[in-house]
């Protein structure tokens, strides 16, 4: 039983990687840099994008992944950011992550020729999104200090599978027992030296650094070979 | 492709329900009431248990579900609560939920004859845990106010699949933009009238109500027919 399950999962991941490569080719053809943005529910991904994207020196677009609803997409559309909603609740209680095929199904509704940087906001979940590549250039995760400093130890794959960790809601630090040194220690334990940025998407603290990082990623990835 | 996937998922859920019934029969034979405790990562499930379980008038035990590590189990063992760790990281990046078979595999290591109330602390995730029954009497979810008031709309199945919603971290309310009326409105939209309790596991506020609820559940479920 367990071996059959392993086979099913491995086959699914193989199929996913094949479709992710096709997405990647499409993004390359359009010169679009793609970022897969992941976090637990309520860590502040959308608020971060509301803060970081308006007025960016490259043209951003967002693909919003949610189990249900279009709340986040509506928030970003209010900021005049091109956004496409992708819901995962077709059929069951809802997929807990985006996969390459779901992203592929959304490509026709994305104005790829009008954007330089596509941010794919994944479903809020610290497990499965880390297992499915979608054709992205980079993966960024947002970890809220309200979640506690033990999260890298409890969800190691997620913290390992990203090129940048954005530590959000630092405006609340003085009201929490969160120990930043311990968090850094745990994070280095699972992903030594991964870059991290301390941010409050609510107050704007640290957002300039995120904006610079996004522009650098886009310029670097989009540069002719 | 999608139809095959639907079939695989339906078969998996059927198999899960069969095993959940077997778990249920074992729990009944031992007279153990079982609660499936769910939340997003870092919502405070373990802190809640640390506060609510010591000195309870029924004998509690905990089955700790985590992708990796035994941090939470260690915390509860420190409080002299019987606890068994169940890790889901065998093979892949880790399962994002507990299923009936995982719980079944842990039954031999649980001292069922010595406990009245078994609390199964699920993996932190607002999607898949709601889809897999494990043989429980009741499902409770913890929603932290730091996650925002929109969560019932974004993860409707989870908020629908529980008999009680514990709204945690209310000690932080004065530092947040969280709108409790909006949260209640959204929650009633997906699960009209579901009982809710306002709690701070950190300060202890509201914990007595949770303790009373746990005892009542145990007494009611364990009462001879």
Instruction: Tell me the β content of chain A.
Output: 15-25%
Largest sheet of chain A: 7 strands, parallel
Q: Overall mean pLDDT score of chain A? A: 92
What spatial form of chain A do the alpha-carbon principal axes imply? Answer: globular
Give me the number of helical elements of chain A.
8
Helix content of chain A: 25-40%
Quaternary structure: homodimer
Count of strand segments of chain A: 7
Distance between the first and last residues' Cα of chain A: 48 Å
Structural class of chain A: alpha/beta
Work out the radius of gyration of chain A: 17 Å
Short description:
Chain A is an alpha/beta fold. In chain A, 39% of the residues lie in helices and 17% in strands. Chain A has eight helices and seven strands.
Description:
- 2 copies of one chain form a homodimer.
- Chain A is an alpha/beta fold and 225 residues long.
- The first copy, chain A, has 8 helices and 7 strands, in the order αβαβαβαββααβαβα.
- Chain A has a 7-stranded parallel beta sheet with strand order 3-2-4-1-5-6-7, sandwiched between helices.
- Chain A starts with a helix and ends with a helix.
- In chain A, 49% of the residues are buried.
- At the A-B interface, α1 and α5 of A face α1 and α5 of B.
Topology:
Two copies of one chain form a homodimer.
Chain A: H1 2-30, E1 33-39, H2 45-52, E2 60-66, H3 71-78, E3 83-87, H4 100-106, E4 117-121, E5 138-144, H5 151-154, H6 156-160, E6 164-168, H7 180-190, E7 196-198, H8 207-222
Parallel strand pairs in A: 1-4, 1-5, 2-3, 2-4, 5-6, 6-7
Helix pairs in contact in A: 1-4
């Amino acid at each position: 039983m367990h071996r059959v399950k392993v086979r099913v999962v491995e086959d699914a991941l193989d199929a996913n990687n094949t479709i992710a490569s096709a997405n990647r080719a499409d993004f390359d053809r359009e010169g679009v840099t793609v970022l897969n943005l992941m976090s637990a529910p309520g860590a502040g991904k959308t608020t971060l994008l509301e803060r970081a994207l308006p007025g960016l020196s490259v043209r951003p677009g967002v693909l919003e992944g949610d189990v249900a609803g279009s709340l986040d997409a509506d928030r970003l559309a209010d900021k005049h950011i091109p956004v496409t909603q992708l819901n995962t609740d077709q059929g069951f209680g809802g997929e807990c992550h985006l996969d390459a095929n779901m992203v592929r199904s959304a490509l026709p509704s994305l104005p790829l020729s009008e954007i330089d940087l596509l941010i794919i906001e994944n479903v809020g979940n610290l497990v499965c999104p880390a297992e499915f590549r979608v054709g992205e250039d980079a993966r960024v995760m947002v970890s809220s200090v309200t979640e506690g400093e033990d999260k890298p130890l409890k969800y190691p794959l997620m913290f390992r599978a990203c090129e940048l960790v954005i530590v959000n809601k630092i405006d609340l630090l003085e009201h929490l027992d969160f120990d930043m040194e311990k968090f850094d220690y745990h994070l280095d334990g699972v992903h030594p030296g991964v870059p991290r940025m301390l941010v409050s998407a609510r107050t704007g603290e640290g957002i300039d650094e995120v904006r610079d990082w996004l522009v650098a990623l886009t310029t670097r990835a989009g540069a002719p070979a």
